[in-house]
């Protein structure tokens, strides 16, 4: 019987080929935009895939992984740690985060990329303060403000008319560090139009807060357009790991 903690040779081969293809796309997009590929980070979206696959991606050189479910992620982080005890990958939370779940992600998260409201920002800040008082954290937690180009509250993100106030608030909270913006091109939008607006919002944010240099934009289907508009991080799931789900779902 195969060991569920070890991906099959076929799966490792698939991940190897997919990773090479994604890296080639990123490099091609950077060349087309006159950018250095080193300017664009690859964030592997590993929601719903098993820890064994993440471990295989670690072996292939990836060190940044994104999850969007607090409970599932906490378990997976520990499983990956057990499988690769000598590795120290960074973990990012990219999904909608309930205020009462902020405490559960702090033990493992490197950065929260989906801060989209003042209430959530304050809730995270409060939990960071508790963690610092308990000696569990040394400094503020980096976060990205999630920006909604079209203001559709159902998909998350702060609307354009609330972006300045939210980014200003984050910089005022002692437990948070504003690292930049995260955004998704709305369904039905032409990617260049969406990422053009996102890039403009990011430039304005950097103008107010020079340290907010991260722009996490672009996914499997539109990363080329996002890179052309200045994205510094692309979040790739399906193109990298395929459309797989863990057996319990």
Automatic annotation (TrEMBL):
Keywords: Pyridoxal phosphate
Residue numbers of N6-(pyridoxal phosphate)lysine PTMs: 47
Domain Alanine racemase N-terminal: 19-244
Pfam family, one: Ala_racemase_N
Function description: Pyridoxal 5'-phosphate (PLP)-binding protein, which is involved in PLP homeostasis.
Membership in a protein family: Belongs to the pyridoxal phosphate-binding protein YggS/PROSC family.
Protein name from the UniProt record: Pyridoxal phosphate homeostasis protein
Organism: Pseudonocardia tropica
